[in-house]
Amino acid sequence: MVTEFETKLLGLMMMVIMLGMGASLTWRDFMIAFRKPKGVIVGLVCQYGIMPALGFALAQTLGLPPAIAMGLILMGCMPGGTTSNIFTYFSKGALALSIMMTSVSTLVALGMVPATLAFYSSLGGYSGDYTVPASNVAQVLVVLLVPTLIGMVLRKVNPNVGATLELLGGLLGVFVILFLIVTWIPRNYQLLLDTSPAVYAGAIGLGLVGMVLGYSLARLLRQDSNRSRTIGLETGIQNGPLAVLIVTLSITGPQQQEVLLIPVLYSLFIVVNSSWVTAWFRRLADREAAARDKAKVGVLAQTP
Amino acid sequence: MNTGLSTGLAHSERPAGQEPLRAAHSPWAAAYEAAGIKAALPPLGHQNLGQLVRERCRTFAQRDPGRSAFHCVMPNGMNGSLSFAQVDEASDAFAAYLLQGLGLQKGDRVAVQLPNSLGYPVAAFGVFKAGCVLVNTNPLYTEREMVHQFNDAQVKALVVVDMFAQRLPAVLQQTGVQHVVVADVTAFFPAVPKALVRAVQKVWSRTLPPVTVPHIRLAQALALGRDALRANAQTLDLSGPSLQDLAVLQYTGGTTGVSKGAMLTHANLLHNVQQMLAMGGTHMEEGRECVLTALPLYHVFAFTANLLGFLSIGARNVLVPSPRPVQNLQRAIENNPITWMTGVNTLYNALLNEEWFLAYPPAHLKAAIAGGTALHAAVADRWREVTGAPIAEGYGLTETSPVVSFNPLTGPVRNKGIGIPTPGTDVRLVDEAGQPVLFGQPGEIQVRGPQVMQGYWNQPAETASSFDGPWLRTGDVAVMDTEGFMRIVDRKKDMVIVSGFNVYPNEVEDVIAQMPAVLEVAVIGVPDEAVGEAVQAYVVPNPGHESALDEQAVIAHCRRQLTAYKVPRRVLLRSELPKTPIGKVLRRELRTQALQQAQSPR
Asked: Does the global pTM surpass 0.80?
């Protein structure tokens, strides 16, 4: 279902994406984020608390077959996707927060993804050829950490190269998904027609419900509405291409097709859903800005 | 004109033993020595600003060819640089283009309407080398403002940033501008970052409108200029004009309505550069400084201090196209060993409220200077605490090129003051009758010195009324202590008169700014039936502060610190305050809003 050439290309693109993500940050940014770690902690709770649990819960309630359920759980365990930064920019959200959440969740992915994946796999009693071994996930992530660190060093040495890679990585993130759509859909349209509504519900629901839960948690923790929208977007948008890459590298044969189904569908729909959510959030941000302007003329304090 | 100043003076009695302050007194002379400041200015080493640029650039290019003179940093860290040799060569080429390519004559006015970017020094220095007159123009000006300024100055050529090109057709139609040179923010950037920034501007943020009027790009203009230089090396005269010739028309006076051009000569600016360097010299080393230029260069403060002053000591000038949001400064500060910076109260305050700045304040900073508007004591103290470097407030006006006085960077910390007159400057404080006032008594600042403008362009009446003989009337009220240190009490016209008592908004603002829950504050007077005028405060709460802020808390705080009549009658919470391009709070606009509101029924 995915050719070897495509897997290699996908791996290469992921390298560049990670290089760009590393280049979007300096060491100082991390140190600053950890001085007031509330935002980062909220992000991590959303990413590795809410999302894997949501993936698992959806798989259970929708009664998905084990291999497909495995794909959904894997998708839930992924770190944040770099495309979330682009959507945050367009929605006039808190860009620095989005970049920080993506990066931190990716850096701790090495420990958190295998751990959450192993936990929910055993919780659901999933075992067989279709499971993704935690050690494989760790290997892929280690390999991807190398370009991330190189990106950070490049940013430090030459800000021009760093900023260029940052932009390139962000654009490539969108391109990879378009690439998946263009190469994969024509060959698998029959599969798409045969796929049950429950699978679609899982693939679409993971992103949308994730956004709602992320937003709600942020509001609960007294983040302002703009930051909460950013956290919502960030929570719902997972690193889809990374999941695809991990599956293709870990599972061979006919099982691959089934496990891959949700990551691929998720990647397709998250672009569409994030787009309209972004448009909606942008309107909200504009409306709030207008309200602030209005408040400037209004009088908040009482006249004595 | 009764501004209330006379009211205040009429109540004052002259204590025995205090002599009226006379200009010849120069009570500040002793302070120079104490602070390590050279009291005598050296003779001007250059005939005009073009020569200054040429000689300084060649000197530093020879000393350290790899060093960059100007370095422009975008918010995402992308950057470009010009070495001293490159600035010199490119501005020669631009001068040649103006004279040969456009056929401009010495004395013709050239408007430069650029944000901080590498094109700015090239264009401005080129104008000087060609002997033309620079008309600094704010890139954010509206069509109406551009038309007024270009017509008033009879501008012949315009160097403009492409981001605002949509205003050109209408403006050119209504003015005598004959030539348009278009520059972009990424001028002289390496090819890849340049292409990416422009692609983002065009596709993403849509800030690159098409240029629909006949024009030439800066790069093309420079190429033509280089050709002209090669072909006519003997006949092209780039030696510039003489000292007394006009160098800059610097527009000002937005506060009184119509804007007018202050005529600054080469001598004015060269002297003021020396005066500024004399005050800062205690903390400067030739060829070793790196200055952060976050204020716009088209404004006279950054123009003289950063562009001319720091170039003449061979500093590396880090240009930031827009300091708003203040986050834009992060990469510039992170990636450059900043040793000096110039700013205004709002900029310093904004930086002190940034997480990244507090975590990593510039480690190499030697000194910071503030002007434009009063530096709040709370901000100054916090700045010293965070950066470990001195911050000194100064005072100046567009009409004085601009520096009049500064606090020395050495010696005891003096908040809330504008320091002593710079070497070569005479200052006197006078009452309504034009008589010098006593030490410690408020009087209008009047200035005499080599940096004082020649007058307002084509405004003989305005010029006449702004001078008292050789003395320039500033309209600012200050007091001076016996050592010659001055403290602004306020703009004459900003003073609030509550039941006949003078309240100076600066004082009230300074008290409110001490509250940690306050981010920014402005104080104005509004008409009041009972007391004539009532004090009204506008407060922006600090979002980073835990506890909420309300009117009562502010008033209670003021009651503890101020006499009853100075305490604001009302406190209004705002999310931001109206400001000028460099960040001065516009009290006038708040007053207009308040008046409109008082008239409209609630």
From this structure: yes
